[in-house]
Design goal:
Blueprint: H1 7-31, E1 38-44, H2 50-66, E2 70-75, E3 80-81, H3 82-93, E4 99-103, E5 109-111, H4 113-119, E6 123-126, E7 131-133, H5 145-149, H6 151-171, H7 176-184, E8 188-190, H8 191-196, E9 202-203, H9 207-214, E10 218-221, E11 224-227, E12 234-237, H10 242-249, H11 253-272, H12 278-293, H13 301-317, H14 325-339, E13 349-350, H15 360-363, H16 365-386, H17 392-396, E14 400-405, E15 412-416, E16 419-424, E17 434-441, E18 444-449
Parallel strand pairs: 1-2, 1-12, 2-4, 4-6, 5-7, 6-9, 16-18
Antiparallel strand pairs: 3-13, 7-8, 10-11, 14-15, 14-17, 15-16, 17-18
């Protein structure tokens, strides 16, 4: 039997055991590395439309469902539809996931409607060479609200939009006075100016630098305050769906104008040539897409009517002898319609006039090309009317044939156009005599011998 341990040794062993047990829990968290934070990345580089609103809403919902750390929106826009902008702002303010809006890359801008989206972000940032501002209510096409819609409407629109901007800025703790000036005075700011004026929070040259700068910030979301962990986060891009891309594509007024032209022309051709099917189907599809586009961008209904009338006149030129008058009027009507296609009296749109307008490549060449095409058709139709008919009974007159059985006052037979026909003639002609058709009586041909051919008798 071993002697018992001295008391001082036993105490030392117990102390060592307690130290090991106390240190064990502290080492446990280090055994497993913390998961890498994830950021859902969205890109908006186009006018703000209903398609943009759907895209951002889908991105926010996905980030919430997958537990992402934040949503990053790379923004470069000239402006857009005010109702779509309000919808986007509502989604940003109600988001449970922090939203970072970066006006980038280099040379990007947050113009007009883009100002409201940037102000509504939890973290607003800009590329050093980007700019923000110019949110004054400018009508689509660049028209002034007061001149186009009246003084009262101009004041109403301006006050409403200014209050909208101030409310967003106050909610996010940003410069509400500058936000109101961006609306009332159309002021703009560079990235450094915007940060100095507390319009945005950060200036970052790229996404990694932005995420590193945003790391550790505490922001307010719909679910409460959250501290961002975005440094070295995994960025997961989310693209647009086919529907969202289609809505964005249809937001281009040049596309809408061409769809209206092609659609109207297709329906007109189907009307004049029933049963051809293809022009009607293509025309109906183009018109359907054009009508869908009219809910995306402001379209002047009067210009649409004028466009339809212009195409109808061009088509009529091919069927009615107007000596080019209908074609000229049709081309002029299409030209005027394309110039007036965007509705400048709509106060619900805030587009940069330089970025959202009909291209001269559509305004001028399209009606000229259509006029030239239908003018060519009209020339061919007019020319065909002067030529001898080549089909039917009238087309047989003057044709040459050969007697296959004796022809005279009593019916014989001649060979014409690869067929045998019953024929009569004032003189008798033997088989093999070349003849010319004078007249068609039902199914019997009246023929005469060619000059120099032999005749049997009269």
């Amino acid at each position: 039997m071993k002697p018992p341990l001295p008391l001082h040794r036993l105490g030392a062993a117990l102390a060592a055991a307690v130290a090991v047990c106390a240190a064990a829990p502290l080492a446990a968290p280090g055994d497993e590395a913390a998961p890498r934070p994830r950021v859902v990345a969205l890109t908006v580089k186009a006018p703000i439309t209903t398609g943009t609103a759907e895209y951002l809403e889908a991105g926010l919902e996905r980030a919430r469902e997958e537990g992402a750390e934040a949503v990053l929106v790379t923004l470069d826009t000239p402006g857009g539809h005010l109702e779509a902008t309000r919808e986007i702002v509502q989604h940003l303010l109600a988001s449970q996931v922090p939203v970072i809006v970066w006006v980038g890359p280099g040379g990007a801008r947050a113009g007009s409607a883009g100002v409201f989206i940037t102000l509504a972000a939890n973290v607003a940032a800009m590329h050093p060479t980007s700019n923000i501002g110019a949110a004054h209510p400018v009508l689509a096409g660049g028209g002034d609200v007061e001149r186009e819609a009246g003084k009262d409407m101009a004041r109403k629109v301006e006050n409403d939009t200014a209050a909208f901007a101030r409310s967003i800025a106050k909610t996010r703790g940003r410069n509400a006075d500058w936000a109101e000036k961006a609306v009332r005075e159309s002021v703009s700011a560079t990235a450094d100016e915007a940060r100095r004026l507390q319009v945005v929070d950060l200036v970052a040259a790229d996404v990694p630098a932005l995420l590193a700068a945003a790391d550790g910030r505490t922001v307010s979301t719909a679910s409460g305050k959250r501290t961002l962990r975005t440094r070295d986060a995994a960025v997961e891009p989310l693209g647009m769906t086919v529907r969202q891309r289609t809505l964005g594509f249809l937001s281009d007024p040049n596309v809408v104008a061409i769809l209206m032209l092609v659609g109207t022309l297709g329906i007109a051709l189907e009307f004049y040539h029933p049963g051809s099917i293809a022009p009607g189907v293509v025309g109906a599809l183009c018109l359907l897409l054009a009508f869908l586009s009219m809910k995306v961008i402001p379209v002047n209904i009067g210009a649409v009517v004028l466009l339809v009338a212009g195409v109808a006149l061009l088509v009529a030129e091919g069927y009615v002898t107007t000596h080019g008058l209908a074609g000229a009027l049709g081309a002029a009507a299409i030209l005027v319609a394309t110039l007036l296609f965007i509705d400048k009296s709509s106060a619900e749109y805030r587009f940069d006039p330089e970025a959202f307008t009909l291209s001269p490549l559509v305004v001028w060449p399209t009606p000229i090309a259509l006029a030239a095409l239908l003018g060519f058709v009209a020339w061919k139709v007019a020319r065909s009317r002067k030529e001898r008919l080549l089909v039917g009974a009238a087309g047989m007159v003057g044709e040459l044939g050969e007697v296959t059985s004796e022809v005279g006052p009593d019916a014989g037979q001649v060979f014409v156009h690869g067929e045998l026909w019953a024929a009569r003639s004032e003189s008798r002609m033997p088989r093999g005599t070349p003849v010319r058709i004078q007249k068609v009586d039902g199914l019997v041909l009246r023929v005469e011998p060619l000059p120099g051919s032999s005749e049997v008798s009269r």
